[in-house]
Prior knowledge:
CATH superfamily of the largest domain in chain B: P-loop containing nucleotide triphosphate hydrolases
Order of helices and strands of chain B: EEEEHEEHEHHHEHEHEEHEHEEHEH
Oligomer: heterodimer
CATH architecture of the largest domain in chain B: 3-Layer(aba) Sandwich
Radius of gyration of chain B: 25 Å
Helix content of chain B: 25-40%
Amino acid sequence: MSAQDSTGVIHDIGYRRYAGARTTRAGIIRALLLSGVLAVFGFGRSGKAKVLPFALLGMTLVPAVIQVGIMSLIGLSADLLNYSAYNAGSSFLVVLFVAAQAPVLFSRDLRSGVISLYLARPLGATAFALTRWASLVLAILAFVLTPLLVLFIGGLAAGASLREELPRVAVALAGAVLLAMLVATVSSLVASWTLRRGLAIAGSIMVLLVGLGVTAGLQEVADTEGATTLAHWAALLSPFVLVDSVQVALGDASTQFPAPADTVATGLLLLGAALVLMFLGMALLVRRYRSKGA
Amino acid sequence: MTVIETQGLTKRYGSVQAPALADLTIEVGDGVTGLVGANGAGKSTLIKLLLGLLAPTSGSATVLGHDIGRAGEQIRRAVGYMPEHDCLPPDMRCIDFVVHMGRMSGLPPAPARERAADVLRHVGLAEERYRLMGGYSTGMKQRAKLAQALVHDPELVMLDEPTNGLDPAARDDMLALVQRIGHDFGIPVLVTSHLLGELERISDHVVVLDGGQLLRSEATRTFLADTGTVLVEVTGEGDAQRRMGEALAARGLTCRPQGSLIEIDPLTVDGPSSGDDPVAAADGQDAAAAAHDRLRDLVRDTAADLDLGLVRIQARTGRLEDVFRDEVPA
């Protein structure tokens, strides 16, 4: 940087004050929320930041497109459309997406120091942390809902009945919302504590994917040993197993795992416990950001 | 107009004995105010307290009339802050970043874009604004940081070490820019630095902190007033400076070598130097002026007698460093 860059033109133009309208707190939150969702998909960042999220989104759509294609070409029945199991089936892609993109919202601010600029602005640490979390939830929702909608709309186009499909897809959508919130909480905690993108990615994959395998194994063992209660509650170790379990117990969906909750009561208890854990996670996240302001 | 007012502001971190900021009572007005102190003197702590990011241990303060304890959000809406450390995401274009920061301060989308472009031009980043900030030089990063502090047209800006890491030319640019913000833009500036010489040049008022304590809070010009001391440089054969010094001492002057210069203390003025009587006070001033001239005459005559070339006779003005030399035991 040398002197000649700054002189000359700058001095000709006077400074203009701004007397126009300013947005409210809600407006700032909306702007942050939207920019966060877009940042996850690489908008407002470098060109190559868009490659990974869209590649993963494309990959997660493949099974849906194939299923719809088979249905319409061969004319198989609509029972083939298993919405509620879709995201557990493509859990690897969901985990990759979340693990790779959560650091965009959580590690990047803390690591590059932008957080001190955010905290010196009106929102404050609590609102900022929760808005970031909500951005990640919405981004994950976009990722997990898109294939479900492709299945649903494609299935209808291929002749499935709206009346039969609607309740089934509704359960899957509710499950997807729960999944997005749980996965977002886990990965945001990991990302906000590790700071380095690589570590955050590895950490999230560890927690989510290995957690999924361990939970499935644990359920299998507990189930065969006759410890059904333990098998049910093991679902709390993995968001994917938990969502599956809750969908089975409350929404009459088919399961992908050894020991889903078998009664509505267990399902409700599991759901409640998962939500409590999620709120605890969010409180930890808020604490993390509050400590950054000091 | 008073923009910042603190009353006995104290901040203690944890159970550490020495407070980071002790019983600070200052007033900051329009124009550029320099906040000087060594590392750890409490400058950044003061800024964080004023932004409402830290709660004071005791005492109170108002920024633009808002209480720091109750109205943190209003303060942060109206204040622009440039932190000391790195705070730019490397994978964003500067223009997008400044627009985003404008939005975060409550600007609607269209004004945010307009003002971001405007402000980037003011800080001298017009050409480079579409580049990713990861590739910026330190000077450009400092400018981008300054731009985000100005984008929402703040009523006060707090700049924490804006010249940190800059080469001399970029430092001069940055200081000129800070001065322009305070005077031409009409935005009061609170700027910190550990380099006293910098603030001497640009600030109207200086607050000096040391170890969390207030050393001084005064208009800059009182720091920089003529001390009466004279610096003399001579040239000639052999050991010119020593010979000159000895000759001056022989004429009853108190002097000492100061690098390649000789520093001569002012002549003591006889008679009433101050008092309530205006005639006596005027006499005192006349006497001081006479002593001022007599000292220079003496130096000239001494140099002529020794057949030395007189390179310069320079009035030594005060410098901010003197505050520390005078008041802090080494």
